[in-house]
Amino acid sequence: MSNKVEVQTRNIRLTDKIEEYVNKKAGNFDHYLTAIEEARVELAHYKAARNADDRNVAQITVYGKGFTLRTEERADEALAAFDLAHDNMQRQIERYKGKHQHGRGDGRSAAEAAEPIFDDATGELSPLVARKKKFVLYPMTEDEAVVQMRNLGHDNFFIFYNAQTNKINVLYRRRNGSYGLIDPELG
Predict the structure, then answer these.
(1) Which has the closest alpha carbon to 114: 126, 124, 122?
(2) What is the 3-state secondary structure (H, E, C) of the chain?
(3) Cβ distance 39 to 30 under 8 Å?
(4) Percentage with pLDDT > 70 across the chain
(5) In the chain, where the domains are located
(6) What is the maximal distance between C-alpha atoms in the chain?
């Protein structure tokens, strides 16, 4: 049995070949973890990317009961980006299974329990923070942030600059479908 796969594209024409390829590979995620109910694949092409290798982006989000796993990869071709994201998702699923099915049970935190990860190319120890992201925050109200969060397809959280309080806030979706707001203060 295969999980439900939803394929979306941006600036790419979704051909039958691409859709069949993506459905065949992403439809088998439930073989790795039976709790997976749905997979969402988004393929996008950005002409304005600085590097030609970053023009095609594949984003895979896997949903199950009580969890969401997401990965994003870039490459010079859409299917190459999808293959990279697919391989990364398989690793995430295996890591999720290891943490949630076997349990650590030794009282260590996730950072303490994490095994060192070595870079295949250099053989050196990889940093714990594998990716950093920068983005521009535009001032907006809480209501505008909810609209932006929905429009961007952010299912879990959205960071914004609150124009009313002049502070950075985090808007998040609660389990019951309502929204919560984190308003941090310096200690």
Answers:
(1) 126
(2) CCCEEEEEEECCCCCHHHHHHHHHHHCCHHHCCCCEEEEEEEEEECCCCCCHHHCEEEEEEEEECCEEEEEEEEECCHHHHHHHHHHHHHHHHHHHHHHHHHCCCCCCCHHHHCCCCECCCCCCECCCCCCCCCCCCCEECHHHHHHHHHHHCCCCEEEEEECCCCEEEEEEECCCCCEEEECCCCC
(3) no
(4) 82
(5) 4-104, 139-182
(6) 55
Q: Determine the pLDDT at residue 104.
A: 47
d(CA 163, CA 170): 13
Overall fold of domain 4-104: Double Stranded RNA Binding Domain (3.30.160)
User: pTM of whole model > 0.85?
Assistant: no
